Amino acid sequence: MSTTPQFTLYTHVGPNPWKVVIILEELGLSYCTVSVDTSSGDHKKPPYTTLNPNGRMPTLVDHANGNFVIWESGAIILYLVEKYDTEKKLSFEKFESNAIAKQYLMFQMSGQGPYFGIVFYPSALGSAWLTIG
User: Fold this and answer.
1) pTM of the prediction?
2) Both 99 and 46 in a single domain?
3) 16 with 81, same domain?
4) Domain span including residue 120
5) Do 42 and 76 sit in the same domain of this protein?
6) SS3 sequence of the chain
7) pLDDT per position in the chain (133 positions), as tens?
């Protein structure tokens, strides 16, 4: 007897979907993944852009919440933790502690993450690498 996963995670080869996978696993939430072929541009056209008009990865569909769709790894992480971390595995009782955790999430998303992307995927920058590097 198979059960339908609560979530569908649209993913590709890259670091951002893994952030969401870690949260799903830590919270013990059921999910399936759908690999989107970014090399052929499938992420920039329907049906993917009907879920995520930004055309980037990852995107999460919460089937238990009326097929609620959310995209961008940081937003997905906040959604999952705030909605489903009832046992406080990844969040805190104290408001200030949650604020500090969000501070580090924002640091990773806007500071550390992009620089790691430059190091591990320099070809994605093309000629822009010359001005940054």
Assistant:
1) 0.82
2) no
3) yes
4) 92-133
5) yes
6) CCCCCCEEEEECCCCHHHHHHHHHHHCCCCEEEEECCCCCCHHHCCCHHHHCCCCCCCEEEEHHHCCEEEECHHHHHHHHHHHHCCCCCCCCCCHHHHHHHHHHHHHHHHHHHHHHHHHHCHHHCCCHHHHHC
7) 558 999 999 999 888 899 999 999 999 999 999 999 988 999 999 999 999 999 999 999 999 999 999 999 999 999 999 999 999 999 999 999 999 999 988 888 776 666 566 665 556 555 555 555 4
